[in-house]
Structures are given as C-alpha cells and as structure tokens.
C-alpha cells in the first residue's frame, strides 16, 4: 500500500478537507439542515473518505506490510462500529437488525466485491493474479469461522426467541470473536508475516512494495493524526446523513435491510480504492490482505462492541441470518476456498466473485 510522493495541492487538500469536514460536523451535529447544507455534508464526507485513504497509505508505507493493510482495515472497522452503535442507540427496535445487516454486507462486499475486483484487475493486466496460498487460506478460514459463529448460529440456538443470542451466548460470541481476531493479527504480523507479503508471478516473496523513500516520522505522525480526524468526520457526517439514507430507502420502496448495505458500501469505499490500486501494481496479496482483513475485523471487532453496547440499548439484537443469506455465505466460502488453494487466479475467479457480489446486491433490493 505504498504511495507516491504527493504534490503540494494534494497535501493541502488532504490536510484541509478532514479539518473542513470536522468543522461542518460541529455546526450540523444534532440539527436539521437544509438541502444545500446536506450537499456540503456529502461533499465533506466523500473528501474525508479519500483523505483517510491517503493518510492510511502514508502510515502504511512507513510501517510496511502486512502492518499497512492492518492500519486501514482497523481504521475502516472503527468507522463501521461507531456508525452501527450510534445508529442503533438512536433507532431503537427499528434498528434491531442493523448490526447483522451491516456486518453481513461487509463480508459480502469484501470477500466478493473487493476480492473479485482485485483478482479481475490483477489478472486483466498480467493474465494471472498471484498471491500467497498459506496466508490467504488462513484468512478465508478465519472469515468462515467468525461468520458462522456470529451470524449463522443465532438462527438455530433455542435459548432466545427469534434469531438472537441469550446474554450468555452473546458474551461468549464476543469473547471468541475478539480472541480469534487477535490470534489472526498475531499470526499475520508476528509469527507468519511472510505469508502475507506480496509475491511475483515467479513465486518470489517481496518484502518491499517499491523503492519509494518512506515518509519521515513527522510526516507519519501528521498523517496518523489527520487519519483520526478524517475518521471522526466520516463517522459524524454519516450519522448526520443517516436519516436521509433511511428516508431514501423508504421512498424507493426498498427493504429496511438495504440501509445496512448502503452503510457498508460507504464505509468500505476506502478499502475498495486502496485494493484496486494495489492490484494495478501487481500486489494482489495486499489487496486480499485488505479485503479479508476487513471482513475479519468487521466481525471480530463489531460483535464485541455491540455486545457491550447492548447493555444499555433497549430492544432485541437480531444477529441470525435468514435462509437466503446463509446460502450466499456458504457459496461465498466454497468459491473462496476453491479460488485461493492454488495461489493463482484468472479472470474467471474474479468474475465469479463479482457475480456473487452482484447477486447479493440484487437480492438485497429484491429479496
């Protein structure tokens, strides 16, 4: 996820836009605003997302892989968790399934949308898209385990009525999810770091993405601070736009669950941009690190956060998937395993994942 040296205008923009977004957030928080101001909020939100990508890449270039992918994955998940908690706190029973819908949407977007786009772009350029089998298989196995324990089991447990956990079951799922996430991060960054480094088409492991000079400590800490500002701005401004999103979904006659899809698409935009850039630079492994890392973080961090938040939130917490979504999840796991076991993907594998992503979006609109 290394980045080229930005020009003066880029530096000014990536510094000013997050600060402007924060100012707009301060003046609009908790207020009803006219259409012109809503447009300004949307502009600042988009700018903050792009700025977050830039500053995450600066930090990533400094710390190297796979730490760089981890920085952006965790940053994006922080946005997602904050959005879910704030929307559920304000929405009451109406948002009882928002956590499930958003997390499942994140898994489908990352494991099918981002993975499919990355493989397609990488294979389009060079015929095949190479990556590490060991690291990618481990990531897919982790996603499958977390998704099944947190999103499938609640449909079949009998302790509570409906697709939800009892208090004890939710606490267990939260602890297990966090433990599995931390175990994966330890493997990715310490014990088996080499499994998550980019590889060439000849199978050579690359310990550096390119020969660009890394940013200084001052530039890195400045980007880290601006990344945090951009994330706060994204969370706050998306919270402000959430009534507009909900009313738009209602006006279009779409299912309420589609709100979770819109939120996940918005939150994962930085990941999508960063992954496509890496794929264009023949760093497919980094793209997969971003995609699978975000899916793992989305479940491993969101479920514990929701479990803690449920202590003071009223209403049920629906986590179990319906039959259609369970079929989509099962098919995604099977196709993902068959894709990664060879360590080389073609346009076909990328197209299959994109087909699954398109099917998920279509079924979210027309269930």
From TrEMBL:
Keywords in alphabetical order: Membrane, Transmembrane, Transmembrane helix
Membrane topology note: Multi-pass membrane protein
InterPro entries (UniProt xref): Alkaline_pH_Ca-Antiporter, NaCa_Exmemb
Highest taxon, organism lineage: Bacteria
Entry's localization field: Membrane
Pfam families on file: Na_Ca_ex
GO cellular component labels: plasma membrane
Transmembrane segments: 12-30, 36-55, 67-88, 103-124, 136-156, 168-187, 221-239, 251-269, 290-312, 318-340, 347-365
Domain spans labelled Sodium/calcium exchanger membrane region: 36-189, 223-365
Molecular function terms from GO: potassium:proton antiporter activity; sodium:proton antiporter activity
This protein's name: Ionic transporter y4hA
């Amino acid at each position: 996820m290394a980045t080229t040296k930005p020009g003066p205008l880029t530096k000014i923009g990536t510094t000013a836009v997050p600060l402007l977004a924060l100012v707009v957030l301060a003046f609009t928080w908790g207020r009803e605003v006219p259409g012109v101001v809503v447009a300004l909020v949307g502009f600042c939100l988009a700018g903050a997302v792009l700025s977050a990508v830039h500053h995450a890449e600066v930090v990533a270039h400094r710390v190297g892989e796979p730490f760089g992918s981890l920085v952006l994955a965790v940053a994006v998940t922080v946005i997602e968790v904050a959005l879910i908690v704030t929307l559920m706190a304000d929405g009451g029973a109406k948002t009882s399934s928002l956590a499930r819908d958003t997390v499942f949407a994140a898994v489908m977007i990352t494991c099918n949308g981002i993975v499919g786009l990355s493989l397609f772009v990488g294979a389009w350029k060079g015929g095949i898209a190479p990556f590490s089998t060991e690291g990618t298989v481990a990531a897919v196995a982790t996603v499958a385990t977390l998704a099944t324990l947190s999103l499938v089991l609640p449909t079949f447990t009998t302790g509570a009525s409906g697709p939800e956990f009892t208090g004890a079951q939710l606490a267990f799922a939260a602890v297990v999810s966090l433990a599995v996430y931390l175990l994966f991060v330890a493997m990715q960054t310490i014990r088996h770091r080499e499994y998550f480094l980019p590889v060439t088409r000849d199978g050579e492991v690359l310990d550096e993405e390119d020969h660009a000079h890394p940013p200084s400590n001052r530039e890195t800490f400045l980007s880290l601070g601006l990344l945090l500002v951009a994330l706060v701005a994204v969370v706050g401004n998306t919270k402000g736009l959430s009534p507009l999103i909900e009313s738009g979904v209602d006006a279009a006659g779409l299912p309420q669950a589609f709100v979770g899809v819109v939120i996940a698409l918005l939150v994962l935009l930085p990941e999508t941009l960063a992954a496509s850039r890496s794929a264009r630079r023949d760093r497919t492994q980094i793209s997969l690190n971003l995609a699978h890392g975000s899916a793992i973080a989305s479940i491993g961090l969101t479920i514990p956060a929701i479990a803690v938040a449920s202590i003071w939130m009223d209403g049920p917490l629906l986590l179990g998937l319906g039959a259609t979504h369970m079929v989509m999840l099962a098919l995604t796991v099977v196709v993902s395993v068959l894709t990664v076991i060879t360590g080389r993907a073609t346009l076909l594998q990328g197209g299959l994942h994109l087909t699954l992503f398109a099917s998920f979006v279509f079924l979210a609109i027309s269930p």
